[in-house]
Amino acid sequence: MSTAIAAYIALADSAAKRLAPDETVVEVDDFQAVDFWKPKRAIKDVTAPGAAEPFGSHQLGAVMTDRRLLLFRLGGLTHSQAEEILLDVPIAEVESIRCESHWWKSFELFLAVGGAEYPFLIAHIGRGRNFEKAHEATR
Question: Fewer Cβ close by (within 10 Å): the C or N end of the chain?
Fold first, then answer.
């Protein structure tokens, strides 16, 4: 098993412990809505609606359930386990999730909540596009 796959499994398993009994992670096209997002420098000191504190500069774990979008601070030996909830937003309040590719140099995901858009760096555009689909599936 590759290290990347193990990280996604660790995030999904640790996040599942913080879900309500009948709450489920969204799945679209055999993709579970679990990913890693890194806040861009412009938002490191910003606190979004529904966030406990500013985004910071470290990678976050993102999980979309059938009810809400969660962003977690990460921890554990490999920094891939959901530790504490940083952002907890009902799906109805997530205005949009969109991705951009910059000629294979970088990939960005833009989260729109509370009338503002927050940019994150993501590792793979395909996972970001699947998050867009997962958001559309929950609306």
Answer: N
